[in-house]
Amino acid sequence: MRKKTETSLCVAFMELLRKYPFPKITIQKIAEQCGVNRQTFYYYYDNIYDLMARAFEYELLRESRMDQETSWEAAMERFLYWMKNNRIIIKNMLVNVESSYMRRAIYPVVRLSMNCTCSPCPEAGEQETENEEFLRHFLVIGITQYILEWIESDYKESVDEVIRKLYLVIKKIYE
After folding, report:
1. Where are the transmembrane segments (predicted)?
2. How far is it, in rounded angstroms, from Cα 38 to Cα 27?
C-alpha cells in the first residue's frame, strides 16, 4: 500500500505539472488528485520539492526505461530523449524552480546512468574505491550541470552530440 500511495503522488504531481505552472500546484491539489489528505502527503514527503525530485525520477525511469540499459550511452540517450520530448514539464520546472532543486531532481537519474559502465573494480582496495566514488560523483555533478545548460539552450545540440561530448570526458577519466 505504501508504494502505491507514493507512486500515486508522483503520478499526480507530474500530471498537474503538464497542466499548470509549478507555482499553481499545491500540496492540497496533489492530495485531492490522489484521493488522500494533506497529512498523507507529509507522511511520504517533506515538501513539494522532495516530491518533485522523486516524481521526476519515477516518471523518467518509468517512461524511458533507462534503468534497463546496460551501456551508459544507451541509458543517457533514453534520458536525454525523454527530457527533450517532455520539454513542457522541464521548462515549467526550470522557469519556476530554483536550479538547486532541478539539480537535485536530475542528479539521481544521471547517477543511475553512470552505474551502467562506471563501476569500481571488484579487487580494488578501499582507497581506490573512494577515488572511484569521488570521480563518479564529480562526473555526475558535471553531467547534470551540462544537461541543465543544454535544456536552457532549448536543446540546441542534438542528443547524439551531447552524448558524444560527455563520452569523451568519461573516456578520458576512465582510460
Report:
1. none
2. 7
